Amino acid sequence: MKKSFLSLKWQAVLSVSFILVLGVGLITYFGKNNLEQTYVNQRDRVFQDRQKAVAGALQAMQLQLLQLAGHMQGLAGATEEGVGSADALRRTLEYNWDQLNFEWDVDAMVLYNTVGSVIDAWGGGVPAQALSAQWVAEANRVEAPVTEIWCDRSCWQTVSVPVFLNTSTVGVLSLTRSLAGAVLQFHDATLADVGILVPRRAGAAEPLESMWPLGHWQHDLVALTGAPLTYNVLEQMSSGLPIAELARARAIQVWENRHYEISLIPLGQTSDAKGARMVVLEDVSADVGRLQSTLAGFFLAAIAILLLAEAVLLWLLWLPMVRLQVVAKALPLLAQSNRDMTLNLTQLRGPRLIRNEIHDLFDAAILLSRKLERLDLTVKSRTKGLKRRSRELLEERNFVTTLLNNVHVVILTQDRHRRLRLLNTEGQRLTGVAKNGLQHVRFTDYIEDDQRGEIERGIEALFAGTASQFHHESDFISDSGKRLHMDWYHSHLPNTNAEDSLVLSVGLDLTARKIAERNLAWLADHDPLTELFNRRRFQTEFAQALKKYDRFKQPGALVFFDVDQFKTVNDASGHPAGDRLLCEIAVKLAHAVRDTDTLARLGGDEFAVLMEQTNRDGAIALANKLCELISDTEVIGNKTLHRITISVGIALYPEHGESVDELMANADFAMYKSKAESNARSNWHLYSADAPERYELQKRVDWKARIKDALDDGRLLLHYQPILDVSGNCISHYESLVRMVDERGELVPPGMFIQIAEKTGLIHEIDRYVVNMAVAALDSFRRQGRDITLSVNLSAKAIANSDFVATIEGLVKAYNIDRSHLIFELTETSAVEDIVTAAEVIGRCCKLGYKFALDDFGVGFASWFYLRRLPVDYVKIDGSFVRHLAKNFEDRLFVKAINDVAQGLGKKTIAEFVEDEIALELLTKFGVDYAQGYFIGKPQPSLLPSDQKLAGIAPAEVMTELNTQ
After folding, report:
1. Which cofactors is this protein said to need (predicted)?
2. From residue 524, how far is each of 6, 482, 543, 785 by CA, in Å?
3. What pLDDT was estimated at residue 653?
4. Closest listed residue to residue 829, CA positions, set 795, 874, 871, 791
5. CATH number at residue 574
6. What is the Cα–Cα distance from 514 to 465, expressed in whole angstroms?
7. Residues of the chain above pLDDT 70, percent
8. Interhelix angle for 8-79 vs 285-335, to 10°?
9. Is there a contact between 588 and 688 (Cβ–Cβ < 8 Å)?
10. How far apart are CA 17 and CA 339, in angstroms?
11. Is the pTM higher than 0.70?
């Protein structure tokens, strides 16, 4: 059976035509509706405006009548004093009637007494008896004006006003005006014809000659403008449209090819208006004509667009479709290797001025023909290539097999029954299963019993198709019994036969990594040197112990201690000796404490013991035991024997705190108290919450805040103390001493805040602040013509700071100061705390041109070894040996020995605390280079006058003392 055929061009034309007709029709339809609705809305606004205009006109008439009635009452009261009230008003009305009638268009005026009887009436347009007695009674009752519209073969505006003279009521004055005037005003204002439509009462007489009857509506027209044309239009409409429908909506009547819009506006809401309406008739032919012409333009434009679009579409499709038919006939011939069609297609492609898809189709057909020729040749070459590829695939299979058998992961396949179908060499090695024994081995046989069920379900989900991959970690037991921790990835290998489908499993041996992870987890909680808990783990255990106390109310204690000589052992005998000391202490601790106690090395030489379920006596007993055990500890390094002591601090909970931080802080404070009590032997101190220790702790906190505020507010300043050149008997240099100005403006000596700054960590900021002030002072003195040298005392932590040298260099370059004018001063104790770092930093600074002094020499370690190791330029003999030099023979021996050794090492000596002339004479005799003290000069906020300097004196030295005076 031959299938029906319809050309593509006609399908396109018909389809597009349908869409165009539908689209243009919808646009035209909605445009027509929009125009009509716009016209209706415009007429609605006009109608509403006219309703408001009618209401406003009626209200204005009412107001005017009320004002006239009030005016008449006022005239009667002002001119008729002493005469009866009714007669006075009547004569006033009589006197003014003509003016009211001719000038104010009052048609009738009636005066009623209190009971509603007519006293007098003026005007013949409306008989007094025709007016409603109810209005008069209502006005008397409410003693307020009553306004109504009254219609009877015509319509009037009536106002009934109570009349008052003095304080007595005379009656009611009614004023009546015809609405004909309002009709004429409305006509003049709107240019629309208007009339009053009055219902015809049953049994009423024939209409007056001045009235226009509308029998179909049972109404009569009065005061109609534009008659007789307007009357003819209304009469024709009344014959075809009930008045009730016209009252609900406006209507248009065609008369003599003209369109008239007719609308009704009610004149009143009371029964006396008797349904009277104002009828408005307006010629809207021009508006209707414009609307109809616009709609006609819409329809014509739509038809024109439709026809033009159809013509353009047909023109665009006709020739391309002809060419497409040619290509359609040629393609089967090309498939039959008829290459002659290529020439025909080339000739029929047509001009290429503007290309389109048909040209592309012709080119594609020609290209296809040429490609078919090449494909014939390619098929032969591909046959040879397939043979070559088969050999390559064989080589690839051999490569994959080799790869599977040499990778260090287990690769296997298993069937639905978990039997192994393939196992690589690594898998055979781990499982111990030979290749020829795979059919008797199940994968899950090597899995632990408690994990087997979950793994069975996961692999079964792969076979069922509900999962694409399955991953798990599990212990794998080999045939030799070795337990391995394996990470397995399973995926389904699809097969057309569901029964023959397999699961590919790849396993990675994680045994070594798991062991390493366990080691890392141990290191996270332990100190690797002593194998005790570290600070983090100790704080965790401490927090758990405090939670136990909250539940069971069993008190405990924290025993905290450090090794007094640990720094000395490290520096003198090396870090290996220090490590041996820490390990030996850890071993002794483990034997000294209970099994329930928690031991930890918190860092450096600090250890802690957490004792749960103990009291004060138990904690003290352990502290005594530790002091005895550690006191027996001796360490030998570099042929030096070190005897060890410890300082122990004890804090009880909950007596001394309820949080980990608070208890550790209190134990640390107690440890420092024990260290202050004795450094010669092991000692312990129990934290006390009594007033003295609380005061000391609070004092430290308060002073920290005060120091911080002073740094922020810039309340640190320098005082300068002169230093004498003994041999030249002249001022050689100055030492600057830091002072703090408190909140009241008083000076605070450094001894009151430097130690607290060292303990609270603020000493770093003070170091930087003082160095900055000293360099700035050098710059200021230089601008004053005073070329001097400044020496700045530094704390032990200052030179340990990695950016110390960079900071000093930045300041010197910023102020362009000569480096030789700065001398940095270190105390003997701070210098030997880390002698390696101190020697390195001092050496670097000396190479740059700075100078160094070793302060307070003799009260610390007094080690000549340290003096030889440190490349300092000056040695300052501590003032405790100089103050009583004249009285104490041993001090004289010691000062002379220090001076001789220091000078023998090429260093200058400075004696501190020179307070009398005898001491200065002895120092001169001993050959000391410089002297400093109150006998030479007290610290002052400024330098001595420049005229006290003698020729040849070396530049003065300003030494910023942080921890004395």
Report:
1. Mg(2+)
2. 84, 29, 18, 62
3. 93
4. 795
5. 3.30.70.270
6. 33
7. 83
8. 160
9. no
10. 41
11. no
Which residue do the tokens 């405090």 mark?
546
Residue type, 690: D
User: Which CATH number does the domain housing residue 418 bear?
Assistant: 3.30.450.20
Q: Which two tokens stand for residue 39?
A: 């016209």
d(CA 554, CA 367): 97
| Bridge pairing between strands 683-686 and 716-725 | unpaired
Copy the structure tokens of residue 823.
């001398």
- 357-388: b (≥16 Cβ within 10 Å) or e: ebbebbeebbeebeeeeeeeeeeeeeeeeeee
> Taking Cα atoms as reference points, which of 278, 215, 284, 287 lies closest to residue 246?
278
pLDDT digits (tens, 9 = 90+) for 363-388: 777 777 777 777 777 877 888 888 88
* Helix, strand, coil percentages in the chain from 3-state DSSP, rounded to 5: 50, 20, 25
Q: What is the DSSP letter of 447?
A: B
| Distance from C-alpha of 566 to C-alpha of 577, rounded to nearest angstrom | 10
Same domain, 850 and 956: yes
- Both tokens of 750, joined, read 């450094």
Residue 778's contacts (CB-CB under 8 Å, 6 or more residues apart) are 788, 789, 790, 815, 817, 821, 822, 958
Strands (E), 469-595: 469-477, 483-493, 502-509, 556-563
Q: How confident is the model at residue 860 (pLDDT cuts 50, 70, 90)?
A: low
What is the per-residue pLDDT for 691? 45
Q: Which two tokens stand for residue 431?
A: 């499982």
Place of tokens 């347009």: 125
Domain count, the chain: 4
Tokens standing for 492? 């389904």
Q: Please name the helix (run of DSSP H) or strand (run of DSSP E) that holds residue 750, with its range, or none.
A: none
Do 672 and 728 fall within a single domain?
A: no
- Tokens standing for residue 162: 């109570």
- Name the residue with higher pLDDT: 777 or 441: 777
Pairing of strands 822-827, 851-857: parallel
pLDDT of 963: 36
Evaluate whether residue 851 is within a structural domain: yes
Category of 849 on φ-ψ map: left (φ > 0), alpha (ψ -120 to 50) or beta: left
Q: Which amino acid is at 787?
A: D
